[in-house]
Amino acid sequence: MPVAYVDPDMTVEISTISRRRALSGAATAGIGVPLLAACGADGDDSAADPSSSATSTSSTRTTKGTKKSGPPKTTAPSEPATDGVPTSDVPVGGGIVLTDPRVVVTQPAEGEFQAFTAICTHAGCPVARVTTEIECDCHGSRFSIEDGSVVGGPAPAPLAAADFTVSGDRITLA
């Protein structure tokens, strides 16, 4: 059996840390690391720019056996829609999101128009675009272009209908 030799003249220093200092360091690391991670940028700005996401550049969707091609029209001109929106700006089987007022105008079938508030019923975010559905990027809620009902996602209620009239080739919001 091996025997260890200990020099009685040798001094050994033992370093100690107080409990208070240890807990303070752990708390600082527990708060600081996630805070720095949340503030840091990873160099990929695509998450902050919805227009660069794959869904906004998707050129093909299939609904009820009909293939739609080309990028979807998602927003109308940024000027207020007080004088109305041309019906030709609203694609059949899709729609547009107006910013002033915040309204979505859809055309589920040729010549059939609908209008809804453009504020998602889940968290109050403005909806982002209209393809074959009205889409909210905040948490992925999707709504029907026909009646504003919830198609998917966490939204608890349909989009509220907005008042509008169609006169000739213009849609006027009330």
Short description:
It comes from Nocardioides immobilis. This protein is α+β, with helices and mostly antiparallel strands.
Which CATH first-tier class of the domain at 61-173 would you pick? Mainly Beta
- Would you identify the regions where 5 or more consecutive residues have pLDDT less than 50? 43-79
Distance between the termini: 97 Å
Strand count, sense and barrel status of the largest sheet are: 4 strands, antiparallel
Compute the number of helices.
2
Region (Disordered): 42-93
Keywords: 2Fe-2S, Disulfide bond, Iron, Iron-sulfur, Metal-binding
Protein name: Cytochrome bc1 complex Rieske iron-sulfur subunit
Pfam family, one: Rieske
Descriptive overview:
With 174 residues, the protein is an alpha+beta fold. The chain has a domain at 61-173: Rieske Iron-sulfur Protein (3-layer Sandwich), CATH 2.102.10.10. It contains 2 helices and 12 strands; from the N terminus they run ααββββββββββββ. It has a 4-stranded antiparallel sheet, with no helix packed on it. Strands 3-12-11 form a 3-stranded antiparallel sheet, with no helix packed on it. A 3-stranded antiparallel sheet has the order 4-5-6, with no helix packed on it. Strand 4 (94-99) and strand 5 form a beta hairpin. The termini are far apart. Keywords: 2Fe-2S, Disulfide bond, Iron, Iron-sulfur, Metal-binding. Residues 42-93 are annotated as: Disordered. It comes from Nocardioides immobilis. Residues 82-173 form the Rieske domain.
